[in-house]
Amino acid sequence: MKIIVIGAGHAGMEAAFAAAKMGAETILLTMHLETIAQMSCNPSIGGIAKGHLVKEIDALGGIMPRAADATGIHFKVLNRSKGPAVRATRTQNDKIAYRNFLKSFLENVPNLSIYQAMASEIVVRNGRACGVRLTDGEVLGADAVIVCSGTFLAGRIFIGNASYAAGRANEPPSLQLAENIRDLGFEILRLKTGTPMRLHADSINWKNFVSQPGDEPPLPFSMYTRRRVKNRVCCYLGHTTPEVGRIVRENLHLSPLYSGKIQGIGPRYCPSIEDKIVKFPGRERHHFYLEPEGLDNKEIYVNGLSSSLPVEIQKKILQAIPGLDKARMMRPAYAIEYDAIQPTQLSASLESRQIGDLFFAGQVNGTSGYEEAAGQGLMAGINAVLKARGEAPFVLDREQAYIGVMVDDIVRSGVDEPYRLFTARAEYRLQLREDNVFERLGGYALRLGLVSRRDHDREMRKLERRRQLIGKLATLKGRLDGKTETLLKILKRPGITFDDLEMLHGQPLLKKKTLTDVSYIEACVKYEGYIDIQKREVAKMKKMQKVVIPTDLDFAVIEGLSTEMKQKLTRARPRTLGEAARIPGVTPAAINTISIHLTLKYKQ
Amino acid sequence: MDDDAIVALATPPGRAGIAVIRISGSRSESIVRKIIRPLPAKLQARRSYHGFILAAAQRIDECLAVIFKAPRSYSGEDMAEISLHSNLFVVEEVIMLICECGARPALPGEFTYRAFKNGKLDLLQAEAVNDLIQANSRAGALMQFNNLEGRLSKTVASLRTALLQAAIQIETRIEFAEDQLLEETAADSDLATAAAALGKILAQSRFTEILNQGLHVVIAGRVNVGKSSLFNALLLKERSIISALPGTTRDTIQEKLYLDGFPFHITDMAGIRDASGDDIENQGMQRSLAKIAQADAVIFMVDASLPLEETDMQIYKLLAAKKRLLLANKSDQARADVVKSVKAKFPEETVHLISAKNGENLDAAVNFMKNLLQQMPEAAGQTVVNFRQKILLEKLLKKIKLIEQMQVEGLEPTEVVAEEIRQGLSLIGELTGTIGPADILQGVFAKFCIGK
Lengths: 604, 452
Fold this sequence. Notes:
heterodimer; A: alpha+beta; FAD/NAD(P)-binding domain; Arc Repressor Mutant, subunit A; DNA polymerase, domain 1; 3 domains; six-stranded antiparallel sheet; five-stranded parallel sheet; B: alpha/beta; Gyrase A, domain 2; Four Helix Bundle (Hemerythrin (Met), subunit A); Rossmann fold; 15 helices; 47% helix; flat
């Protein structure tokens, strides 16, 4: 069985690694061996919702979390006080080390060949992808092809009035493949993203900025990381000045975003400095972070100042910020426009609906972020192998994983801006925690052959230890506020932590406890009621999911549906009643009306 | 897992001989057992059982109950049908009782939907289903919420905004606050104000009050005019302490009376007289005055056998804004000059001469009360929909109070408060359409300057 992965970024690497691990003879195509695993934008992995994704990738045996730990130089758990479900890990990484680590890691993976070449065409026969043609004419045969082209399809970079074709700064775009994908009949989106300038560390006056140290002790992403991780750098916080606002407003006509040169739609959650100043005219200053790009690397990433203004204006902006007034720019900020496919053309296994054995993952599906890409890459890699074996696809549900939420969101609703994961997108957020990824996904990973029996069993023992302790809490008693209750009941009280419980008990309840242990125990005990409600909802939804809406159903003729409902339903084309129910604005009454209509139709 | 029991009125709302209330779901039989007495220990399916519907241990109607066992029922689940007298208010009180036992009002067409899911539908004539769809569309249209009284719909809209705002705030705090160091905080969401407005409406709403309490009628008058006699005559039982000594009824006594199946609360109150040195009695009088203020209508009694006093005039003044009925009691001892002066002193009123003691002309009072009923806004047609909405709104109010409490106490982690807000939003969603993450994120991006 042969699998070809086009592109060795965050999606492509996970896809190739998973496929190879599952035994497929895998070829990973990259245009440039030196830029495998390149972090094109910020030198960071994880964050809120993204950290959750990385933990899920870890439980499914992926490589991103291991690479993040191995090359991490700053570790932080965000949202510590906001509850176990929204708590999330983030690392700052040494970019060069990250690249090197993954390149050498992949070079040692059995069944995996990395090959420097540019794909020009997906070879399609009888409606199925069966290989890839390279720009030099060579044709590689395959049972499945996975496209992980990032921003390279017909990529175009903009800095002020200048623009040039590129997949990343100074790297050629993939034009032939872009053309080929259009020719294959895919609906294409033109999206846009940007990256800020990089400054020389020695030219920054650091006294003007507030240091943001990592957590002590630092916690790794991966359950397989044995080595102790260490914080080696600090990030710094700074603010723009009103002068920056003035400069941006005066030169707005030079920004291709505002002059109309860029047609692509950018992400609202990651606005350029131009966007921020236009959209929030009342704010005198905007914050930004200075993030080191590595240990042996003087480049500093200016998180918050992405821009497509001309270089001389970017320099003026820097001069207007105390501490950056003498900063030397090493790379300017730029915006990039690229082709993505509308992901509604994919099924939940990330396989194209129109061309069999052709999979897409990552930014080419209209998402943004390394973590989103990696999560899709992993799923596409697994599913390409399962497809080739003739087995059922591996699809995660929305209540099982953020990966499931993301894939379901994009293939069902499509995207109209680069899609980023937020915890708010998950209906069952209290169940999708970093502390229970193994419980949620560990079994699948073992069955798919993505983790070893030994690793699985070790994690299982840790899980059993937590579960046993919860059982034990029901048998131990404590006295608090004049009331004697079981420790389980006491822990359920608002504001009582596991630490409080141990204090009350007078001795440790769990030896060598980790944040994962504590989070898991607190969440399981405190959220039992919520999780029960959610499980009932899921069961209900599942039942409704099963009612299929025929693809030829005309919503417009359904009596009793308002015009607005009809429009919403027609646009979204839900495939089941469950999908219909999740369309914003569609009422339960409308769902019932449809189901009765379906009944009538079936009977006639 | 449709363990949800659902309930709805199966017959058209309005005045008719009988009404049928249907319950579907595995809890149907246990609900029937909770509200109907007496029933044998074992109920056979598809057999009629006679009993009484009990609300707070009081019989409110006589009924026939039938249970069905899955799959041999309309919906294919366990079901129950209760036939009772078709008075809207009683019907609604019973539906309310059933909901208190854990059922929820059915969505339009939901019984049919369940029947469809359970593969029962081929038992139906296509035409019958068609009719149902027609009914369903009308109910569906009603559910768009436009039909509700403007004030309520406005309040729900502001509640929706406040809740969405609260969601935006809290989700922003979760997704960005720490990561992005948000300095700006959104204006406090006006959850409290919106909730207070909803609470007020729910509490004041005639609809609610009728369902919960019925109409309040107070019998008012000077000491010893025979209020307790009338009260007892109306209730046909000895509840008040009747005595010829002035001021015997020292406190108000309230009794429920059904006229046309509709509950009236009749209050027999302490007689009002001036210059009493009796403290206990004064307390009773204070309560009497408060009762008059709250009452829906007042039966004002004067004594036809004794000249009018200043106190009569003072009491009458208190009733200026009330629906009222003037009864001149003691017709057996009536003095012509007194009756004449009563007519002269109260030119706006029709004077009914009665004898509470002898039961003479009591119809004046009964007709007055039945007439009140006629004047109530007709709740028919929208009833089922409104009822569903009302239940949702009450749940919502409870939820919002919980959210506020959590926000004040600050003991629960942010994600728990966020979860409660989500549940609140999904309740609102059942009224006005789903509010999804996209709506919230849109608000986040519009209100906050976020991004790297």
